[in-house]
Design brief:
Order of helices and strands: HHH
Helix content: 40-55%
Largest sheet: none
Structural class: mainly alpha
Shape: flat
Radius of gyration: 29 Å
Length: 93
């Protein structure tokens, strides 16, 4: 079965691809999500981590922000050194 969404994004015509929308709707493919999108119900023990950890996300964001600030400082320092070297080179000529 073709993915109608993928064909639509590619600009294909469903009639040229041989897709019969009436048959597609009758089979239920239009109303049921693919299996990989369905939630698997498992018994999760109390206190177990279930994925999203807000505190960890906040810490990771702060860490990334600090790294970005250090990078920006290094780039600014490099630009200042480059400017100084360029002006010294021009003055020696």
């Amino acid at each position: 079965m073709y993915s109608i969404k993928a064909l639509a994004m590619a600009g294909a015509d469903y009639m040229e691809c041989g897709i019969d929308l009436h048959v597609w709707e009758e089979t239920g493919d239009s109303t049921h999500p693919p299996p990989y999108l369905l939630l698997v119900h498992e018994n999760i023990p109390a206190g177990a981590k279930t994925g999203y950890d807000k505190q960890n996300a906040i810490e990771e964001r702060a860490k990334a922000k600090g790294m970005l600030q250090e990078w920006a400082k290094d780039v600014a320092a490099m630009n200042r050194r480059t400017t100084v070297l360029q002006s010294e080179f021009r003055n020696k000529r």
